[in-house]
């Protein structure tokens, strides 16, 4: 079990908040409102009304977020223009404690009741026809699930994107920590505005450096982690159980294969399977990341909708029509089921598929075995079973040294926006602390589709270690670009441990002449904290020491990659 960061070694003071991160002024087309919650706290909102609202009551799209209701980062004023052009009113609200809203700076906990109270306010407005939908990404997807849990009768449909009702589990201590989530917590909940300074640095050696106000925010995180671990947080937040399991309204679930919250989005999809509104659930998964940047080949320019207004306009013109169609159908009570496929997903390097379920019924499981380990890490191992016969398991192993002072680097600038600069990782595979296994090149295309996991037997000279697995597309040129990845902790206090490393689901086409590559290491920083090589606090690098790591396979416990092929 890993602890949350406390006294972090080598931390560097952060600068004070840049004034530019303060609340943006209200867009000229927006009305400003203060919405009173049941405890008297007032939350700030922008209200956008369609011209038709002068003559008749209209349905409303509500978004509740911690990133500034009028800020450029989320361009919600442009999104509001799309909705109002189709006859919707739009309410965009700063959640409690953020930007212009009053109240305690506390993530997750107040969102169910605040969501209910905001919907109640919307339903009472003269321009409202008491039909409300919710829309948004990430944390403002979570606020939708939070509101659903309180079952306001005016809430008719939701569009949760790159999110889940259990986003807070990333701060529990029973799983491998992922630094981008802790960085998000520090940037978002250390103060009422936003900071964009990194949580960690790689040079001259790995270090963690929190922002001003970090101590109070991390006290909150520790309390959250304890409550997540013992189940009390979920019980208090959702006394009637996970909201998706009893969902009685339609939902359009949307995510991407490179979204670091994809696993949570797919958990929600499984939870709604037997819900009362199961027949009105729709799933969309694209070849995109958390920030909606698309996967693209190296050298293809990025149209950055976060900084380029023209790119944002193009992005919204491509993306918004289906969202508007869905909300129009259910908020305007068109009757029956929305006439769209239940599931639509894009295969990276391939094309769009439609299905009546996820995963599609046509997929078949495939196990790829690790073999031919070689005498050193410079010898590439073999990954067999994709288009050739899987190698029979034999006893084999490979050993390397994990040095906490020089961890294997995570190359993208951000996991949340990794498709903005998804790099060639092949140069990492010549390191003496990365084990590499390649499949033979495929003769005909192979479409991966579904869940992926890595099973291995791991030993270490320390009482525990980290296991990082990255599955990559190996190009004929030697370039290697990641398809999916995952990590887990291994308890090696009693000797070798056989563990399963869950990786993100994928839909990815391996093109003719390409191969699959599995890269296994003990670090990937700053995606995951560096294991210090001792059994103390994983966040404390003082006294860090190099350790021996061994990956092995045998007849009883073969090391393998389990995936699915369409």
Cα distance spanning the termini: 37 Å
Parts with pLDDT < 50 across at least 5 consecutive residues: 1-20
Structural class: alpha/beta
The counted number of beta strands is 23
CATH class of the largest domain: Alpha Beta
Put simply, the count of helices is: 8
Briefly say what this structure is.
The protein is built from eight helices and 23 strands. By secondary structure, the chain is of the alpha/beta class.
Characterise this structure:
The protein is of the alpha/beta class. The protein folds into three domains: 1-18 and 167-241, no CATH class; 19-163 and 242-340, Rossmann fold; 364-565, Sandwich (Jelly Rolls). Helix content is 18%, strand content 30%. It is built from eight helices and 23 strands. It has helices at residues 76-84, 111-124, 139-148, 179-189, 214-230, 232-237, 262-271, 309-331, and strands at residues 31-36, 42-48, 58-65, 89-94, 128-137, 155-161, 200-201, 207-208, 251-258, 281-289, 343-346, 352-355, 364-371, 381-384, 396-402, 434-438, 446-460, 464-474, 480-491, 497-510, 515-521, 547-553, 560-565. The strands form three sheets. Strands 13, 14, 15, 16, 17, 18, 19, 20, 21, 22 and 23 form an eleven-stranded mixed β-sheet that branches. α2 (111-124) packs across α3. It is globular, with a radius of gyration of 24 Å.
């Amino acid at each position: 079990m890993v602890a949350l960061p406390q006294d972090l070694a080598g931390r560097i003071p952060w600068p004070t908040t840049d004034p530019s991160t303060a609340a943006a002024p209200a867009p000229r087309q927006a009305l400003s409102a203060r919405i009173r919650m049941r405890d008297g706290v007032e939350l700030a909102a922008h209200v956008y009304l369609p011209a038709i609202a002068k003559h008749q009551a209209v349905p409303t799209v509500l978004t509740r977020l911690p990133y500034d209701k009028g800020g450029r980062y989320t361009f919600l004023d442009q999104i509001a223009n799309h909705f109002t052009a189709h006859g919707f009113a739009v309410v965009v609200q700063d959640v409690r404690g953020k930007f212009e809203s009053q109240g305690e700076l506390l993530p997750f906990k107040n969102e169910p009741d605040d969501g209910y109270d905001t919907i109640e306010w919307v339903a009472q407005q003269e321009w409202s026809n008491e039909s409300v939908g919710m829309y948004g990404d990430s944390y403002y997807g979570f606020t939708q699930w939070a509101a659903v849990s309180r079952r306001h009768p005016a809430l008719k449909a939701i569009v949760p994107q790159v999110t889940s009702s259990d986003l807070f589990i990333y701060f529990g201590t029973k799983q491998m920590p992922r630094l981008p989530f802790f960085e998000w917590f520090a940037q978002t909940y250390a103060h009422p505005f936003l900071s964009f300074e990194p949580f960690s640095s790689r040079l001259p050696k790995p270090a963690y450096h929190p922002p001003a106000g970090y101590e109070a925010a991390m006290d909150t995180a520790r309390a959250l982690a304890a409550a997540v671990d013992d189940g009390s947080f979920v019980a208090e937040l959702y006394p009637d159980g996970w909201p998706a399991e009893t969902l009685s309204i339609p939902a359009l679930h949307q995510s991407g294969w490179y979204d670091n919250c994809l696993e949570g989005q797919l958990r929600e999809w499984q939870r709604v399977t037997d819900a009362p509104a199961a027949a009105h659930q729709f799933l969309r998964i694209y070849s995109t990341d958390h920030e909606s940047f698309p996967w693209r080949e190296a050298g293809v320019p990025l149209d950055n909708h976060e900084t380029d207004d023209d790119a944002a306009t193009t992005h919204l013109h491509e993306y918004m029509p289906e969202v508007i169609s869905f909300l129009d159908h259910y908020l305007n009570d068109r009757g029956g089921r929305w006439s769209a496929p239940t599931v639509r997903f894009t295969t990276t390097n391939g094309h769009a598929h439609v299905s009546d379920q996820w995963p599609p019924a046509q997929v078949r499981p495939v196990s790829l075995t690790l073999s031919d380990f070689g005498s050193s890490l410079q010898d590439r191992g073999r990954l067999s079973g994709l288009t050739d016969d899987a190698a029979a398991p034999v006893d084999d192993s490979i050993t390397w040294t994990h040095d906490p002072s020089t961890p294997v680097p995570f190359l993208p600038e951000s996991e949340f926006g990794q498709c903005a600069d998804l790099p060639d990782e092949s140069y990492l595979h010549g390191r003496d602390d990365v084990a590499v296994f390649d499949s033979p090149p495929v003769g005909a295309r192979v479409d991966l589709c579904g869940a992926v996991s890595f099973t291995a037997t791991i030993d270490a000279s320390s009482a525990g270690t980290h296991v990082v697995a990255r599955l990559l597309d190996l190009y004929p040129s030697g370039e290697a670009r990641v398809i999916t990845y995952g990590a887990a902790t291994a308890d090696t206090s009693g000797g070798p441990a056989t563990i399963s490393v869950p990786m993100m689901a994928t839909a990815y086409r391996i093109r003719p002449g390409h191969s699959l590559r599995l890269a296994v290491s003990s670090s990937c920083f700053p995606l995951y904290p560096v294991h210090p090589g001792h059994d103390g606090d994983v966040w404390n690098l003082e006294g860090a020491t190099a350790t021996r790591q061994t990956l092995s396979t045998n007849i009883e416990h073969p090391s393998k990659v389990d995936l699915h092929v369409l």
